[in-house]
Write a structure and sequence with these properties.
Blueprint: H1 16-19, E1 28-33, H2 50-60, H3 71-81, H4 96-104, E2 114-117, E3 120-133, E4 136-150, E5 157-172, E6 181-188, E7 196-198, E8 203-206, H5 207-216, E9 220-226, E10 238-249, E11 256-260, E12 264-269, E13 280-283, E14 289-293, H6 298-309, H7 347-356, E15 368-373, E16 390-395, H8 396-412, E17 424-428
Parallel strand pairs: 14-17
Antiparallel strand pairs: 1-3, 2-3, 3-4, 4-5, 5-9, 6-8, 6-10, 7-9, 10-11, 10-12, 12-13, 15-16
């Protein structure tokens, strides 16, 4: 069920007007914290750019993880990517595999949540609102939830889902479940952010209704939309930010208190070269990466590992220390990555590779193919005036499978052309 239009949205009003009418020492002061008592507050600010998204991803730990390369994970992501444009997703259609991953992964249990894939952000979290009269704790209430933000490869929207999982622990000033109102919902973070909007305001309900939603497993949804007409960038790219806003209403009229979670990035585009996926919005605070399993593609993985870890041992030799990009270092988004280019611009890279391959001194079998890294479909390929490259004969089937996996990454992670996007290679095993 979606959030109902007309629900009461709490405004930012720190109760100054209402407090003046109360006897000294009896004014209510409210602190909104996480479940551990830490203040719920905005996190560090990152630029609304591709570089800013990478920095945010590294800082939040939204980095390469082996489970993301499993068949089960890929199947669940495909369910999100392939749904029809004109069919809104229902709560029951959220992939069970991804929800279970969210419920069991400690990375999702934070104020910022966790981006498991560009199509799936998830969070297990909650708030405590503590009321004080003077220095005396006079009441407390707790709300817990699981939330998910699901990207879209057909239209420019993210769908935000929220299900309360606990509502209670209320006593004192919050002892009445009918008059205690709590607010939760997504909002566009930047005031005046061109093109970013939500279809409903944050959801405000009495605690009694939150408890009813917990009992029936109620999901509420919002759309976080992006208006492509507001973008003047290439491919109509818009880099938005959104966060969850929370609030509590105290029993005294006019006392409304709010607190916001850290911002999350959302990148939207209308890139025409995704033939069947003309428009998209994705969670941008995540490191895109190509997983390469050494157990499945041993020769292909060994070549990439050699190029990334020991470039000076690769062919062709150079009179200087070779520099080959694409390896990700955890926690550091400044390391050089790879950038996709259109197929029509790969010719120079392939030509340089074709010059180098016949010069490889070691013999090769007829069923082997000459593999190159960095890939011909990247700005850093063999013709790059900045970076070095490696060529090596490997099993032809593995080389073909590796190329298919790279093309699949471009589609599944919505890799845009050139400096609009950066991705890395991660050897697993």
């Amino acid at each position: 069920m979606t959030a109902l239009a007309g629900t009461v949205a709490l405004s930012v009003n720190h109760a100054a007007a209402a407090q003046t009418a109360l006897p000294p020492g009896s004014q209510i002061r409210v602190e909104i914290t996480d479940l551990d008592g830490k203040p719920l507050q905005p996190g560090p600010a990152y630029p609304a750019t591709a570089e800013g998204a990478l920095a945010a991803a590294a800082a939040k730990g939204n980095e390469p993880s082996p489970e993301q390369a499993t068949p089960e994970f890929r199947k669940a992501v495909a369910e999100l990517a392939d749904r029809p444009a004109g069919k809104p997703m229902l709560a029951g259609e959220l992939p069970e595999f991804l929800l279970n991953l969210c419920k069991n992964d400690p990375r999702s249990e934070s104020a910022a949540g966790h981006v498991f894939h560009r199509l799936f952000w998830c969070q297990r979290f909650g708030l405590k609102a503590r009321a004080y009269r003077g220095t005396t704790l006079s009441g407390e209430v707790t709300l817990k939830w699981i939330a998910a933000a699901v990207g879209n490869y057909k239209i420019r929207t993210n769908t935000f889902w929220l299900q309360p999982t606990f509502a209670g622990d209320n006593w004192g000033d919050y002892g009445n479940a009918l008059t205690t109102q709590l607010t939760v919902g997504p909002v566009c973070a930047a005031i005046g952010d061109p093109g970013c909007s939500t279809n409903y305001g944050p959801l405000t309900l009495p605690l009694e209704d939150w408890q009813r939603h917990v009992g029936i497993g109620q999901w509420t949804s919002w759309n976080i939309d992006s208006d492509e007409t507001k973008s003047t960038a290439l491919d109509k790219v818009s880099n938005h930010k959104w966060h969850i806003t929370t609030g509590v209403h105290t029993p005294e009229p006019g006392n409304e208190w709010t607190a916001d979670s850290p911002d999350n990035g959302m990148r939207c585009d209308s890139a025409p070269y995704f033939r069947y996926d003309p428009k998209s919005c994705i969670s941008s605070d995540v490191i895109p990466w190509l997983p390469v399993y050494s157990g499945l593609l041993p020769e292909y993985a060994a070549h990439l590992r050699q190029a990334l870890d020991a470039p000076d041992t690769t062919f062709p030799p150079e009179p200087h220390p070779k520099l080959i990009p694409g390896k990700y270092f955890y926690g550091d988004s400044t390391k050089p990555g790879l950038h996709r280019i259109p197929e029509g611009e790969t010719g120079p890279n392939r030509a340089e590779k074709d010059k180098a391959c016949p010069k490889i001194p070691t013999p090769h079998d007829p069923d082997e193919q000459c593999d190159e890294y960095p890939f011909a479909s990247t700005m850093e390929g063999a013709a790059s005036p900045v970076w070095d490259f490696s060529v090596k004969y490997i099993d032809g089937r593995q080389n073909g499978r590796g190329g298919n996996d790279l093309q699949a990454l471009y589609q599944s992670s919505r890799i845009l052309y050139k400096l609009q996007d950066t991705f890395y290679v991660n050897i697993i095993g």
